[in-house]
Design a protein that fits this description.
Mean pLDDT: 95
Structural class: alpha+beta
Radius of gyration: 19 Å
Largest sheet: 7 strands, antiparallel
Length: 239
């Protein structure tokens, strides 16, 4: 029998954060966050308060999904999404691969001239952790507005999605080994642990039940300026 793999994260290798969606107005009169996509991760929303919507743009077209308390919505990699806050929208976000969407697997829909290389992109999107809160807010809002400009162009000319996908993939290519390690120690380890448990049970071995454990985590940061709003975040994988 294979060695029993260790896994101590949340079920299935997911992660969570608590999101208060930005109420900043945009040029189109709507309030909300920064449009972006993920390249290897699905993401889910559990709406816990307020009302709003998520706008999505894929090769299948543009859609608007209303969000209200109790709504559970999710989307797969490649879905450009923009959260719209209509009334104090609050969401618990479920992230695949141990929180990888908030740990690098995201590319904002900036205009093409900002997507040419990782350095140019970072200069337009990075929020210094040691900057005063007002300066962090200014940068977050400026990059949101810049991403909305690129997003509007993609909505008006969706044939540009293929070029955006290629540029996004090129921007993150240097980070793929790091992402693979997160997947190996998270989602893959969780799946392999289940396989090992099934093998043990089939052999009449219940020893893993004696290894049961309970864990808790508290947010490692509160009110962080994220892509879509202010975030209460956890360390994933847990330390």
């Amino acid at each position: 029998m294979n060695a029993f793999p260790a896994y101590g994260g949340l079920p299935g290798g997911v992660a969570v954060s608590h999101l208060c969606v930005y109420d900043w107005p945009a040029a189109d009169g709507l309030h909300g966050g920064t449009p972006h996509l993920h390249l290897t991760c699905s993401e889910g929303y559990v709406v816990t308060g307020g009302r709003g919507a998520v706008q999505t743009l894929t090769t299948s077209g543009y859609e608007v999904t209303p969000l209200a308390p109790g709504t559970v919505a999710w989307f797969t990699p490649g879905t450009i999404h923009r959260l719209v806050n209509e009334d104090d929208l609050r969401i618990t976000v479920l992230m695949q691969n141990s929180g990888l969407p908030e740990a690098g697997d995201a590319v904002l829909t900036l205009p093409p001239e900002y997507l040419t290389d990782p350095e140019t992109y970072a200069a337009a999107t990075a929020i210094p952790a040691d900057a005063p809160e007002a300066e962090q807010a200014r940068i977050a809002r400026a990059r949101r507005d810049l991403a909305l400009a690129g997003y509007r162009a993609l909505r008006e000319a969706p044939e540009g999605l293929a070029a955006f996908h290629r540029a996004a993939a090129a921007l993150v290519r240097h980070r793929l080994p790091e992402w693979r390690e997160r997947w190996l120690s998270g989602a893959r380890a969780a799946a392999e642990a289940t396989g090992a448990q099934l093998d043990r049970l089939a052999d009449g071995d219940v020893s893993h039940l004696a290894e049961a454990a309970v864990r808790t985590e508290q947010p490692s940061a509160y009110g962080k300026f994220g892509m879509c709003g202010r975030l209460d975040v956890y360390e994933w994988p847990p330390t």
